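quick q for whoever's on today - can somebody do inverse folding on this one?? i tried earlier but teh output was garbage lol. tokens:
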């Protein structure tokens, strides 16, 4: 039997919408762009193996798992692993072009970089999500091992497999995408996009008409709570 194309089309539309509204290329790359901070820019003595690191950006948050010895495992969209086997070239800092093409091609890599390359001058929050998942926090070593096992090429999806899903799986045992939606709703520059996200979510998730109003109130609450 043929699958209903409506949820698939709505999911694709939702991903493209979020790409246009919220994905801003990282400052990493070449062509005269500012290089990442020199080693030692961050004090890593306060980080412990298995910590969940967050780097707030203007329009998004980037996440990673600290592995110790100034190394962070994080998921990044990247086209290069799907077209080249040159590990030395792949390990170089991901450029804007590689990142954008990776998003469009739905290809990413879970890679290990220095704290400086991971954060790229941004402020770092440590285990900021733990307060929301107090009963689900795995052991630090377990979180780090999960991250290490997943290093390599992977599929990418703005909705279902991004850097947030990677770290929440490693530290809490299951991928979580609630914060991604909250981040979108709380950005007042994206009110129209938030409405479309809510409507597309209703279609994608098969929400019955009788629950449409509570769903709208739910998104409104998240926006106000932000």
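ok took a stab at it. sequence:
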């Amino acid at each position: 039997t043929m699958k209903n194309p409506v949820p698939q089309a709505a999911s694709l539309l939702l991903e493209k919408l979020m790409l246009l509204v919220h994905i801003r290329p990282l400052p990493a790359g070449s062509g005269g762009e500012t290089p990442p901070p020199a080693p030692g820019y961050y004090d890593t003595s306060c980080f412990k193996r298995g910590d969940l690191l967050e780097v707030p950006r203007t329009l998004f948050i980037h996440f990673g798992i600290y592995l110790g010895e100034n190394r962070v495992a994080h998921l990044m969209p990247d086209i290069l692993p799907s077209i080249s086997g040159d590990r030395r070239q792949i390990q170089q800092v991901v450029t804007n072009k590689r990142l954008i093409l990776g998003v469009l091609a739905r290809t990413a890599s879970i890679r290990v970089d220095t704290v400086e390359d991971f954060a790229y001058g941004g402020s770092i929050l440590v285990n900021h999500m733990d307060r929301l998942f107090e009963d689900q926090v795995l052991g630090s070593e377990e979180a780090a091992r999960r991250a290490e096992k997943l290093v390599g090429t992977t599929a990418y999806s703005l909705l279902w497999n991004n850097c947030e899903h990677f770290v929440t799986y490693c530290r809490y045992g299951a991928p979580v995408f609630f914060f991604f939606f909250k981040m979108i709703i709380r950005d007042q520059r994206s009110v129209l996009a938030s409405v479309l996200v809510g409507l597309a979510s209703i279609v994608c998730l098969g929400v019955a008409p009788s629950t449409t109003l509570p769903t709208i109130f739910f998104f409104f609450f998240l926006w106000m709570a932000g």
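fwiw The first helix runs from residue 5 to 22. also Residues 214 and 220 are 10 Å apart (CA to CA). so keep that in mind when u check it
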